[in-house]
Design a protein that fits this description.
mainly alpha, Arc Repressor Mutant, subunit A, single chain, 179 residues, 2 domains
């Protein structure tokens, strides 16, 4: 889908769906944000649901590709080094895909398929491969990391005087938990 008009509409839709939710983001607001008439939106997508689905599919594929690029197959000196690289890469991935992540969290009941489940399963397998400990529930471990990241990305990191220090302390805490 390389049509420039479609891409502009989908970019505006992602922004407004993430900010206002599916119900709050009107087709008129989306088309005006993209710089087109509402008729153009309907001509390109037929209806709001088709636009929403197109936004989800395109951004899901982008995030999936971005996630695949941070899953590296290498040996780490210790679990802390692995966690630092993983968490910092996940934070970058979250920053680059924040609107989509926010949209999928806020509209999870409206979305068919389970992106979050696939994400948790993939990350759980990756962590288990690199940190082998029978005591760890890897899915809970992933949720812990994702929850911390999401709250930071939402701006709750302002609770910490030193944002970078908070990330460093989180990594250290996670490393302590797996020892």
């Amino acid at each position: 889908m390389t049509d420039e008009t479609k891409q502009k509409l989908m970019k505006a839709a992602l922004e407004l769906f993430a900010k206002e939710g599916y119900k709050g983001a009107t087709t008129l607001a989306i088309s005006e944000t993209a710089g087109f008439s509402e008729v153009t939106l309907f001509r390109k997508f037929g209806n709001k649901k088709n636009l929403f689905t197109s936004v989800l599919i395109q951004n899901y594929e982008k995030l999936k590709n971005d996630l695949d690029s941070i899953i590296i197959d290498k040996e780490f000196e210790n679990p802390r080094d692995f966690l630092e690289i993983l968490i910092r890469n996940l934070l970058k991935l979250g920053e680059n895909n924040f609107e989509f992540i926010k949209l999928t969290v806020n509209e999870s009941r409206r979305i068919s398929g389970n992106f979050l489940e696939e994400l948790v399963n993939n990350l759980s397998e990756y962590i288990e491969k690199n940190i082998q400990n029978k005591e760890i529930d890897y899915k809970i471990f992933v949720f812990d990391i994702l929850a911390f990241m999401y709250l930071l990305l939402l701006g709750y990191g302002g609770v910490f005087m030193d944002h970078e220090g908070a990330i460093e302390r989180f990594i250290n805490n996670q490393a302590l938990c797996i020892q």
